[in-house]
Amino acid sequence: MQEPLTVSEPMPGEKIRHFTDLIVWQEAHALVLHVYSLIDTFPEREKYALVQQFIRAAVSVPANIAEGFRRRTKPEKTRFYNIAQSSLAEVTYFFILAKDLGYVEDDSRNSINQLDAKLTRLIQSIQS
Fold it and tell me: What mean pLDDT do residues 90-119 have?
């Protein structure tokens, strides 16, 4: 799996000013990079089918975290963080499907299950 984007983290006690400072966004971005690296091995026939859906769902996770971060009210923030969680569920399903179709190895599936659990916890933590 690719390393998350390197960004400067705020100092302890300093306010987070940008969505890229959020660990949850960094992990979600790493997920997108991982999906892009995996789809290179998919058969050509999946180019306009599974690949496009996979990318759309993966990109939606950090995009909705970013948008939720910028929203002003708690209900608005919660809405976008919930969309991010739903998109994460889609990504997890696409990994299951890709594994069952023989496009990815079992170890990729295990790492995605771990990342899914971690991202779910992180998204839930920013909603509290």
Answer: 86
How do the domains of the chain map onto residue ranges?
A: 19-127
The pTM of the full predicted model, rounded to 2 decimals, is: 0.84
The Cα 108–Cα 125 span in angstroms is 25
> Which residues fall within 8 angstroms of residue 32, CB to CB, at 6 or more apart?
58, 59, 61, 62
Domain 19-127 belongs to what topology? Answer: de novo design (two linked rop proteins) (1.20.1440)
Q: What's the rounded Cα separation, in Å, for the pair 125 and 103? A: 33
Contact 24, 119 (CB under 8 A): yes
Neighbours of 74 (CB within 10 A): 9
Task: Kindly report, residue by residue over 82-93, the tens digit of the pLDDT.
Answer: 999 999 999 999
One-letter amino acid identity for 103?
Answer: Y
